[in-house]
Amino acid sequence: MSLIKKIVGQSAVYFIGTVIAVVIGFFFKVYLSRILGADALGIYSLGLTAIGVLGIFLSLGYGNGLIRFISKYKATDSKNRLINYIGNTLVINLCIVVPLSVCFYLFPEIIASKLLNTPSLEEYIPLFGLMMIINSFLVLAEQIIRGLQEVKKSTLINTFLRLPFKIGFVVLFFSWGWGLEAYIIAELLGSLLALVLLVILIKRLLPILTTYRLKGISFVDEEKKYSLNLLITNSVIALGRHGDKIVLVYFLSTFELGIYSVVLTIATFIPLVLTSVNSIFSPIISQLHSQNKLDDLAHYFQLSGRYVFTLSFPLMVFIFIYSKPIMSVFGSDFIQGSGLLLFIIVGQFINVSMGSVGLMLQMCGLEKPLRNISIMTSFISFALCFILINEWGLVGLGLVYALNMLMFNGACAFVLKKNLNIQLYHAAYAKVIALFCALFIPIYYIADGLNVTTTPLFLCYAFLVLYVLYMSFWFIFFGKKEFPQILKTVNFKF
């Protein structure tokens, strides 16, 4: 089996697992929101945010280097360096995460009230401390698996074992009358199961790791430089990724944070096509760039961009039209988040319409500009959160989200054009966007004028009708010409 075939195969399984997880996660979130309400979901999201931010520093950046250095040392048969890197990373993580978790157990009031400004979080802080330990090693285990190019196996564990295991315990604990602690403990048990299975898998894939004996922590200069760079970069990116939640709780409450978490759950559906294309397109980008076939690279980039936009646009329109009924599915507490959802959809519209522009920079040797763009947009977004959330609440948060997508993708597109003279937008793509946007206006007003009860079943039928309508128009105007090109792209991978 060729390397590209293996990568594509792994990517396909990863994408299918991701889709299944997102779909199940959506319905599970509906179930949770109806039982727990927005405030409890907000408390959970804040706790998860806290340990997520701390998780960046637990391995001092060396955990992020696992994929690169495992692949490198395995390819060069440098077994001692491979074992040393993994073993030292695990030891560093252990030495940092355990004391932090002890602090979660000893000082829950200080962490909840003083640091996170949420006294209601106090009783759950020890549980989040335990979750931090398990999750930190789970992340490292998954990085090791990815470095060994066995993503398929970890995907199967997380999707078909961990997820139903967690859901089963949640339902059981709720039947016993438990509250939010049911969700947290079930999450702990699911993560622990996945960790145990991944450790067993790693021992089978890398039996030499069992011979590791700590003789002192040491890394070579290349490892130190790479990890430090990633630590700084990821710290700043985390500021943009999690800072909005912290600022939201500071100015508003966990109630609004719970609404925001539901909105983000809905939004995860929109970039699924982009995710699938990126997982398959990445080895193609790398191959064409290494062969200096920039014209072919531009062609496939533009074709994939139109493909992503075409398949994603109907879903964006559907969510935009029925934002209130969709939010009401989660419970009456969440209807007020419909305005926020509209801005998130606008942000995702920008994201999917720009295609795989970020991936292009990553796979074409432009990692440094990509890093700088990520840092710049994270700082700007975090600063805007203080201004706009304080001024407009959830709507302000949605505006920050949309602006962040615009800044990041716009900057990536500029760098790509400047360095490789490749751009996504051209006459053919402009026609696709113009046609679909023109169709949106009459459909929006027709749907808005329908006096029907928007039950979940009606929403399913409405989405199917809308999707068939849009795809029919696409095939009539563009499909006959572009479909053979898509098939050619698929054949190219093999």
The SSE string, one letter per element, is HHHHHHHHHHHHHHHHHH
Radius of gyration: 23 Å
Shape: globular
Strand residue content: under 5%
The description of the largest β-sheet is: none
| Structural category | mainly alpha
- In helices, the fraction of residues equals over 70%
Number of helices: 18
**Terminus-to-terminus distance:** 10 Å
Q: Which consecutive residue ranges, at least 5 long each, have pLDDT under 50? A: none
Secondary structure: number of strands: 0
Keywords:
single chain, 494 residues, mainly alpha, 2 domains, 18 helices, 83% helix, globular
Task: Describe the overall structure.
This protein starts with a helix and ends with a helix. The protein has 18 helices and no strands. With about 500 residues, the protein is an all-alpha fold. Helices cover about 85% and strands about 0% of the residues. It has helices at about 5-55, 65-75, 80-105, 110-115, 125-145, 150-175, 180-205, 220-250, 255-265, 270-290, 295-320, 325-330, 340-355, 355-365, 365-390, 395-420, 425-450, 455-494. Helix 1 packs antiparallel against helix 9 (about 255-265). It folds into two domains: about 5-240, no CATH class; about 270-494, no CATH class.
